[in-house]
Amino acid sequence: MKRILLILILITCTRSFSQDVAFTQSFMIPESINPSFSGFYQTTKAGLLYKNQQWSGFNFNLNSQFIYFDDWYPNLNSGIGISLINHQETVTNYNLKQVNLSWAYDVQIDYDWHFRPSISVGFGFKDYGFDNLLFEDQIDIYQNLISSNTFDPIVLSENVRYFDFGASFLFNNDYSWVGLTLRHLNRPNVSMVSQGDAPLDIFVSLHASLELPILNYNDDNSIFLITNFMMQGKYDRFDLGFQYVFDRFSVGLTAATNPIQTSEKSHFITSVNPVIGMAWE
């Protein structure tokens, strides 16, 4: 049985959503954006995405990891996958971990095209790590002391756990694909305050990889137009770029844009990102 392992390490200066982590180079490991890719290659597949997001001059960075494993089950005509997203912020000590289980079913429309609907179920854990914060009830102005203990209700519920549901679909042939992903369909409550109500906004992603009829010297060389439009709450982002694939290697260049700018200080182009990848089989 053929097995595929993909590892992609990213060091970028792009922004991520305030709620969902957005990997600029998700087209390299499309399982990170669409669970319908579970079992897509009808073989065992595993991969890792790592992103270190830094700001020059500031002691602040974000670390994000996406790990996945999926396999194809011919008796079910389905692919099943499991993934883990891990995200940390250095200043706030915010930490997110979420495990997702995905199931994708393959429907052959005609000789060339397939339709792959999928559903996913996840369990998430958010922790803000309030240990480094100072609260009002810790300060004793009469004795000039700071207590190590606090009874602030937000600290007593400094983490939140939730179940998450999503759905996606994918149209594909041997050369191109177009997909749609919907996350947080149940809008889980992620409030850190007791009896609080902070439903997570639904995440929408419309994405495609389309092979272009240029520089096709043989079956191992292709150029793709790649797009990914993402929206969650008031935030949006549109990634556009090109990818050149030759044998097991690929190089790409994408631009992350902010098409629906939410403030006068917003920039239309937020980053330009080169990427190099390799697949082991």
Automatic annotation (TrEMBL):
Q: Pfam families per the record?
A: PorP_SprF
Its recorded name reads Type IX secretion system membrane protein PorP/SprF
What is the organism of origin for this protein?
Answer: marine metagenome
